[in-house]
Design a protein that fits this description.
The protein has about 850 residues and is mainly beta. The protein has a single domain, classed as Beta Barrel (Maltoporin, Chain A), CATH 2.40.170. It is built from 8 helices and 53 strands. It has a 22-stranded antiparallel β-barrel. A 5-stranded mixed sheet has the order 3-9-10-7-8. It is found in: Cell outer membrane. Keywords: Cell outer membrane, Ion transport, Iron, Iron transport, Membrane, Receptor, TonB box, Transmembrane, Transmembrane beta strand, Transport. It comes from Zhongshania arctica. It is a multi-pass membrane protein.
Length: about 850
């Protein structure tokens, strides 16, 4: 591993050094050197090249040049970062192979996201649109000491533009393009008190009709309908005290995930099921629609697929100079409400697996059951002290953190089929060992093609969750010599988690009496001819039994240490290879993701925290008179107590499959990354490489029949082995102004998307590699106006960005296409 990475470093350095002798064909301005990049990866401002952490820093101008408009776009320019759709529109974020696929409040994210220093608690609210962003920093590897829990993979720090005290300024960007793209983005800076006070207002509206036509009703999927407003107020109260407040509101009202389906096991349980009035079973319907992706089409029940939410975030930061120490206090409040998330996740127009919070509430409403609406709240308080001591040899950071999160009325359904009604072919039960009181196996075999076993599969639960976190931390960096620095840190975290679940289970007897059926067991009824099954009135409300409540609480604590030793080689002895600066570092650190309480049938199941132990060697290099920047790292992480979803058979027979969360294994994740930037007169080249080698050491789960199964040979889900990116742009002065052409290439190797135990046995559980080309042409006639033309997915290639494969359950892979070729025009204007 180390030898390969070192050779890659030498190869990249040699190529870029050779390019330094290239002479451009046009008369162009010369860039003297790369600008210094300031980061806050260690909770204080310092130069990127002096920070012994693997971090990618993308400033506002870089985001604009690359056409980055949301955090999901970052995966194409940041090594070892993966942002991929799974079964829902709540995308999963992974750094160095560690993240979290499931977007549920039961599980905490594995990659933390911070907006102006405020932690975003839930993964399904992480993909914020880039509203007036000053910079985005992607920190790779566990960040458990200074940033705390749920940063086992890394952290993403988003910072908005600070208000200026000097003058009124404003800017706006209008984007129009194919597929109904219509975006407006604007901001205004207002000085309120000379040299003391200012406010900055910004807003964005994003509209997109959608990339994929739905053959069911002609609607478009992969649409966008989002609005966001941000307000930042800055007041220098005096020379020692500063007040910085921030408020953010956002609203999203879109259709759900645009999935296609592919049959990988036509004999799987649900693949053979059918619904009233439909001649095909699920596998047959999916097979008929497998080629829709080639025409950029989907087949989705629109009324069962939407994604809506509103959120707000408010923060107050006080920075107070206290002699040798600076105190920073961040108080924050966040809320999510008007949540309406529902997904038709079977990838077809078959009514098999609609899922989501709104489906659960609809079922309760139809049954006349009064219930709570889901809302989420969080308050947090952090106190952080920074100071330099011992003749400025010691840079010390310490403090405390507290947060209280409450999730009320989180709804989750297990309703499959047409409002819970499915038809089971008798052959499904022939292969199972069951004590269900039905006709003999011989009679079932004879009736396989003429009779149907009706199944009612419906339950709803509402969760009320409280999470409290307390932590103290300290980290100090001491200059052992002029060139050698030692950093030691430690964080102690306590988590208290409480959960109450109210379960609504279907009244099987009441449903049978209504439809003239005899209930046998587990929602299965007596065999009936197919015409009788087709006449079942599935549009009527599901009858529910009286609710049953269960509750539990659990506490966790963790000590997370960190050690870093870095050496600044300066220019001594390296002038002969045109190296301006070189810093190398060694890091040993630990990350912690909290455990929790998941639902397992009618009881709550406790699962333990995840722990990641990281060892890393890296370097930061500038060369060729500060025209080349080359940063890289090699790492190894031991990943223990991995939180995964498992399955077991419930008390009601083979159709009663219980999914639950538990700890099931340990793994090793190792790899390397390399980032390079070269300024070659008027040409700028940005390149990066990422490599991830992840494998399980122990991964054993329980199957639905109660047996155990070894999954240790299974690939890591949603994690590509290789990523790479290359962007070339050229600044060309013309009589009509500056013209900047840019070409960007990105590659991601294949990814495994299996979820259930045996998905790895099916070839369709792996999505192929993808290569994308984007082009952009920018014209700057003066300092105020910017006009850009862009074409993304230049070759109109068909790739799937993510998905879910269920080989033994659904028998299909549902997968989401990347957008087809799309183009547009951006016009930006600034006022002073």
């Amino acid at each position: 591993m180390k030898k390969q990475s070192f050779l890659a470093f030498l190869a990249v350095y040699w190529v870029f050094a050779s390019l330094a002798t290239f002479t451009p064909l046009f008369s162009t301005p010369t860039f003297a050197q790369l600008e210094e990049v300031i980061v806050t990866a260690r909770r204080r401002e310092e130069s990127l090249q002096n920070t012994p952490i693997s971090v990618s820093a993308i400033g506002a101008s870089d985001l604009r040049d690359a056409g980055i408009t949301s955090l999901s776009d970052l995966k194409s320019i940041v090594p070892n970062l993966q942002v991929a759709p799974t079964a829902t529109k709540s995308q999963a974020i992974f750094i160095r192979g560690i993240g979290q696929r499931a977007s549920t409040p039961e599980l905490d994210p594995g990659v933390g996201q911070y907006l102006n220093g405020i932690f975003i608690a839930r993964q399904d609210s992480q993909l914020l649109d880039a509203v007036d962003v000053q910079s985005i920093q992607v920190l790779r590897g566990p960040q458990g000491t200074l940033f705390g829990k749920n940063n086992t993979g890394g952290a993403m720090l988003v910072t908005t533009v600070k208000p200026s005290f000097d003058s009124w300024t404003a800017n706006s960007t209008v984007t129009v393009g194919s597929h109904g793209r219509q975006d407006i983005k604007a901001s205004v800076n207002i000085p309120l008190l000379e040299n003391r006070m200012g406010i900055r207002l910004s807003a964005t509206v994003r509209r997109l009709e959608g990339y994929f036509k739905n053959i069911v009703d002609g609607s478009r999927f992969a649409d966008e309908d989002r609005q966001a407003i941000a307000v930042r107020f800055l007041w220098d109260i005096n020379d020692d005290l500063q007040l910085d407040t921030f408020s953010f509101w956002s609203m999203q009202d879109e259709k759900g995930q645009a999935n296609n389906c592919q049959v990988i096991n036509a004999e799987a349980a649900a693949a053979t099921f059918f619904v009233p009035g439909q001649p095909d079973n699920y596998a047959q319907r999916c097979k008929q629609q497998e080629n829709l992706a080639e025409n950029r089409e989907v087949a989705i029940n629109t009324d069962a697929s939407f994604y809506r939410q509103q959120s707000q975030l408010h923060g107050v930061k006080l920075i107070w100079g206290l002699g040798p120490l600076d105190l920073e206090s961040i108080t924050a409040y966040s809320r999510q409400y008007d949540l309406g998330k529902q997904e038709d996740i079977d990838g077809s127009d078959f009514s098999l697996v609609p899922n989501g919070e709104r489906l659960a509430l609809r079922a309760l409403d139809a049954a006349g059951i009064d219930h709570d609406q889901e809302e989420r709240y969080q308050i947090s308080q952090e106190l952080k002290f920074n100071g330099r001591f011992l003749d400025d040899k010691l840079d010390l950071t310490f403090g405390a953190f507290y947060s209280a999160e409450r999730i009320d009325g989180f709804a989750y359904p297990q309703i499959i089929g047409a409002n819970g009604v499915l038809g089971i072919p008798p052959s499904f039960l022939l292969a199972s060992t069951t004590s269900i009181s039905l006709p003999s196996v011989d009679l079932l075999a004879a009736a396989t093609n003429t009779l149907v076993l009706p199944l009612l599969s419906a339950s709803v639960n509402l969760s009320f969750i409280e999470n409290d976190t307390r932590a103290v931390f300290i980290q100090g960096s001491y200059d052992l010599s002029r060139d050698l620095q030692l950093t030691l840190g430690i964080r102690y975290t306590e988590d208290d988690k409480q959960r109450e679940v109210v379960l609504y289970n279907a009244d099987f007897d009441a449903f049978g009496q209504r439809e003239g059926l005899i209930h046998a067991q587990g929602g299965i009824y007596n065999p009936v001819p197919r015409p009788v099954f087709d006449n079942i009135n599935f549009a009527l409300p599901i009858p529910f039994l009286a609710p049953v409540s269960t509750e539990a609480e659990r506490s966790f604590d963790q000590l997370s240490p960190a050690f870093t030793l870095n050496y600044d080689w300066g220019g001594d002895g390296i002038d002969s290879v045109s190296v301006d600066s070189l810093m190398t570092y060694l890091t040993i650190s630990e990350g912690y993701k909290s455990g929790g309480l998941g639902l397992r049938g009618r009881r709550l199941n406790e699962f333990e925290p995840e722990v990641v132990e990281n060892s890393e060697i890296g370097f930061k290099l500038e060369a060729l008179s500060s025209r080349l920047r080359l940063n890289g790292a090699i790492y190894r992480m031991d990943y223990d107590q991995i939180q995964v979803q498992q399955a077991e058979t419930g008390p009601n027979g083979p159709t009663d499959v219980i999914l639950f969360l538990d700890n099931a294994g340990s793994a090793v994740v190792q790899g390397a990354e390399l980032e390079a930037t070269l300024l070659l007169n008027a040409m700028q080249i940005n390149a990066n490489l990422g490599y991830t080698d992840a494998y399980y050491r122990d991964y054993t789960v329980f199957l639905a029949d109660g047996s155990s199964y070894d999954r240790s040979a299974e690939p890591f889900a949603v994690v590509p082995e290789n990523t790479r990116s290359l962007a070339i742009q050229y600044r060309w002065e013309t009589p009509l102004g500056m013209v900047i052409p840019r070409l960007h290439y990105s590659y991601r190797s294949e990814i495994f998307v299996g979820l259930d135990a045996k998905a790895n046995l099916y070839q369709g559980a792996t999505l192929g590699a993808q290569e994308l080309y984007n082009a952009r042409l920018t014209w700057l006639p003066d300092d105020r106006l910017r006009v850009a033309l862009y074409v993304n997915n230049l070759k109109d290639s068909l790739f799937f960005g993510g998905g879910v494969a269920l080989g033994d359950n659904l028998g299909t892979t549902t997968k989401a296409q990347v957008p087809p070729r799309h183009y547009g025009l951006e016009v930006s204007y600034s006022w002073d």
